[in-house]
Amino acid sequence: MPAQSPAGRVALWRGRSGRVSAFADRCPHRGMRLSHGFVRGETLSCIYHGWGYAQAGNCVRIPAHPALTPPETVRVATQHVEDGGGIIWISAGEPTGGPPRFEGLAPVRSMTVEAGIVALEEATGTSIAGGLLDYTNADTSVRLLLAPESPARTLMHVLIDEDSNPDERITASRAAEALRRAAEHIERGGTGR
Amino acid sequence: MKLYDYVLSPSCYKVRLMAALAGVKLDIWPVDFHPGAEHRGPELMALNPAGSIPIFEDGDLVLTESSAMLVYLAAKAAQQWLGNDTAMPAARVQQWLSFSHRLTASLGAARLHEMLLRPGNIDALRGQGTVALRELEAGLIEQRIRGQNFLASDRPTVADIACFPYVALAPDGGVSLDPYPAIRLWSRAVRSLDGFIEMPGIHRLHELKPEPGPEGGEA
Amino acid sequence: MTRNAMMDEWYPVGLVSQLDAHGRSTALMGEPIEVKRGDDGTATVARSDGRHLPVCIRYGHVWSSLGDPQKPLFAIPEADQPGRRLVDVGVVRVRCSPLRAVENFLDIAHFPFVHTDILGSEPHTEVQNYKVEIREDEDEVWATQVRFYQPQAAKSAEGGITTEYMYRVPAPTCSILYKTCPPRPGEWDVITLFVQPLAEDLCDVWPWMALFDDETPMTDLIHFQQTIFVQDRSILENQIPGLLPLDPGMEIPTRADLTSVAYRRWLKRHGYTYGAQLVAQ
Ligand SMILES: N[C@H](CCC(=O)N[C@@H](CS)C(=O)NCC(=O)O)C(=O)O
Ligand code: FES
Ligand SMILES: [Fe+2]
If DSSP states are collapsed to H, E and C, what string results for A147-164? Predict the structure, then answer.
């Protein structure tokens, strides 16, 4: 699937073993976005000509030349990713430790907000620390994990107490929708709550 | 059963897809929609004064709304696709069947504008399409929380088929699907169904087929 | 900057069959133009300032140029051969470089993945060696002896066959392919891709065909070709960078891509760079 990272667009994929990888979202052959590709076993293949890449980013298959072992030089840039409690983390450089853990919380959904951090702070009336925001609306408490994609666009991950029942999770999802509407209204120049 | 059809029409594709999933053979009658505008010609206007396709005929029955065609095919040949055994899914099916027309009017019109040069206010169409996609995403998230992977129940229904094509083809109209993870999972679930067929713009899920052998020969 | 060499080329700007007095507002390389049938029944193409542009009617399309074409439009002798059916496939707009659209047309290695079960299928993915040359006399790129296994090579094909192709690039945004003709061994079907550059990253594509096929209804022939091209469209809109890279270091070709390599080299040599990117960014 496609995703954003500080180093640009990435193709995130999971091999059969469950291992997650992040590649630069561009096939070195003719530039097709790799996030449109397909996964067989532990290989991500490009949809255009089917070139296959292993988790380390090296090309392992060129279907037009089945007998050819692809040269080592054919590879895509990879980024370090980690799967931590239902959230995929990507690190901009060499990571110094594991990703943060949110004990007792479970992810509900991820959503794109066409608003920046400032508008989200204004909409919640809270300030954001370390990309985290705890937000309570009509008895529902959620923790929001915010990743800015651009100055006016934020990827928002919604987390909730892992003991919540389905109704509470649905309420949390709806609360996040309401927050998104409010933040986008502010971003467009409207006033806060 | 005869279908007046156009290969690039997502509305016609709904009917072809439902027929394929239900194992029904259609008698396909290709309409020169583009560039010929045959759907606006006297013969087809006589059948459907609205000037749209698909048009479906079975004996005396003439249908001009794809949702009705899906229900007819399911009722005849694949009743589990009607999703009407209890009140809740029955209502959800109707909810999404009606909703699907908003997809046609927004994402469908944006696609015709971008691809076949039809007139339209592209920014407004994309905006309405985005609103509809967000509703669909939220609906699918809630379904997943309930433990159901499809729009109206835990199995696919005509509602999924009514919504799938214009959503899957949203990028044709310049509307990205990148922000919708639940739509992506649902779209994969639909594309993985037994008997699923594609249309241009919706690629085969090549992962469903094993990797050919190292010899590249007959595997 | 020197004058863009592509200015003096002919480009398709509309279907002759759809020409009317009302006109079609379109563009050529960023310049708005109006294509219509004039009072005397002939086609006219004019810029927004009213200045008339050269016009040529050929292969079912109206052709025009922003500059001063030094040569007549390229010849397709087969187009005048009796017994062929001429198919106006109609326009499809693509948000991509006009040169990327042509390059995709010259490529066969994508058939199994993009035109699955029609023009190709796994495991028949191998591209055999073929011949590529830049013919100096005609100043055209040619690829010959291109062979590929195809499940359904044409509307008239029954079952899989190994198809032979020849490709020809007579102008920077036009390509012609000749392909084994199932009903008539020894003859070639002619399938073209005429690309109208609207901007460097936007084009209107006008596929056109001259086929030996008396059986298949016209609408089916149109739909077959529209199917194929629209399968390519979602690829073309997702290539990065949008402009065709002419710097050899940017993308990695293999033997299967020799036509594309020759096409890029020929574009560079002539300064046909509208829709191209010269240096890596
Ligand atoms: N009656 C609707 C109409 C579907 C629809 O909008 N069809 C398009 C083709 S995809 C159409 O015929 N448009 C008429 C036109 O654009 O001229 C349905 O069956 O869902
Ligand atoms: S562009 Fe990816 S395989 Fe050719
Ligand atoms: Fe293609």
Answer: EEEECCEEEEEEEEECCC
